[in-house]
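Predict the holo structure. Ligand: glutamine.
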Amino acid sequence: MHQTKYIFVTGGVTSSLGKGIIAASLAKLLQAKDYKVTIQKLDPYLNVDPGTLNPYEHGECYVTEDGAETDLDLGHYERFLDTPTSQANNVTTGLVYQSVINKERKGEYLGKTVQIIPHITDEIKERIQLLGETGEYDIVITEIGGTVGDIESLPYVESVRQLLWEMGHENAIVIHLTLLPYLPTSGELKTKPTQHSVKSLMQSGVTPDVLVCRTQYHVNDEIRNKLALFCNVQKEAIIESIDAETIYDVPGLMLEEGLDEVVLKKLKLPHYKKTNLDKWNQFLFKFKNPKNEITVGLIGKYVELHDAYKSIVESTIHAGAENEVKVIIKWIHSEDLEVENVSDILKDVHGVIVAPGFGTRGIEGKIKAVQFARENKIPFFGICLGMQMAVIEYARNVLGYKDANSTEMDKSTSHPVIDLMESQKEITNKGGTMRLGAWECKLKPDSIVSKAYASKNVMERHRHRYEFNNKYLDKLEKAGMHATGINPETKLVEIIEVPKHPWFVGVQYHPEYKSTVLNPHPLFIDFIKASLEYSLTNRKQ
Ligand code: GLN
């Protein structure tokens, strides 16, 4: 019988150590040895999903093919592994409790007192094993959000303890990610915080099998011995994770440290294949040896927190490597564009991306940026709200509908060129009720997008409530803005282009969710190519 193996990744000392990147890098190495791997994230907050969270709280909300609104770490998993994740790959405390309480109401525990142990932990354990039970994976890596010792994490750590016991040591192991802080005054890396975090894990009955230590400096033998002794971890299972120039270096660094070897040994899995990271390394080489450099303006209202636009930034990195060009992001706050001179802010950019978003803040700045890019023939890429802004800008400045707007921003506009989708009109609950996940889109022949995709039909992921108002389609088409991507069932406009412009594309969906290292997204590749051409022609003048 096929036995799925489980790897749990916990974190200690501080948050933000990059558990997601370590999990994704390990998965990449195991995948490069031909193992089928998936990664799951357990988030210890009470929101059912991060869809209702402000990006300032938790960064970008990532959307899967099957329409789950998830943690941004799932984006890393997909970008590293080039395989889709699903609803089952992200579990939150909110989701777990909701499910247990629903069962209680249905009478499924009739007569029993419903408790954290065993009911909540059983629910967590079930959700951890769900991916393994599909039979699709040899290894499931489960990343436990938060830091050990947090009250919120306790039921998760307890579930891991039970599973380790039930599954046996060959089938389930724990990797603990910690920090070795460097004290400049004594010139030393310190192990005490790691000792304490391992102690706290052990108090919950869990002993780590592998320690991955984040550090600014190399971890010498003496420190490895000390960690092994105090933390009950074999010396060969002390893995250094030194600060990297880019997250894409981490799989290579983990390979050098032998993380995959240790893990396979502990899980008693054979090394039946040599690690093949050729394609990954080809990407890395191109990424690190660009032939040109361009600047792309990224206009959004959460730009103070770069994680709010994680997938967009990574997509420009993938597409940049493909074009052998270094893409510098110029972070532009849409509110600054409302008060300052747009031409001053955008004069040195070779491409403009107007980002997704919700609500009215910064809207007029985004519209000004679209106008500047359109009139100055700078490559323009509008994503979701960015596409909607492009439609509003065109309606206002080309069709002359001065108060054209989206009804999201102005309910009483006389030209609602963007309007609430029919299917959204009766919806009152905010959580999980947008148009989500992958939908089909039929591309018009000879458009920028059909050439870029080299396809007639695509599936792309969505997350929105408002849409292009088809009542204005004829007028906009006649004025030079074309709908070049349509949903075949609903006739919703998914893509607009301005053919008179060298590269002006707005998409109602989120192409950034589908760009991976091995398969950069075609529209990002084409947009970066157009921005490079723009930069080269402008330089010559
Ligand atoms: N606020 C817009 C809508 O709901 C755009 C959403 C987005 O950019 N993801 O339609």
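Residues 356-358, 384-385, 408, 463-466 surround glutamine (CB under 6 Å). The mean pLDDT is 95.
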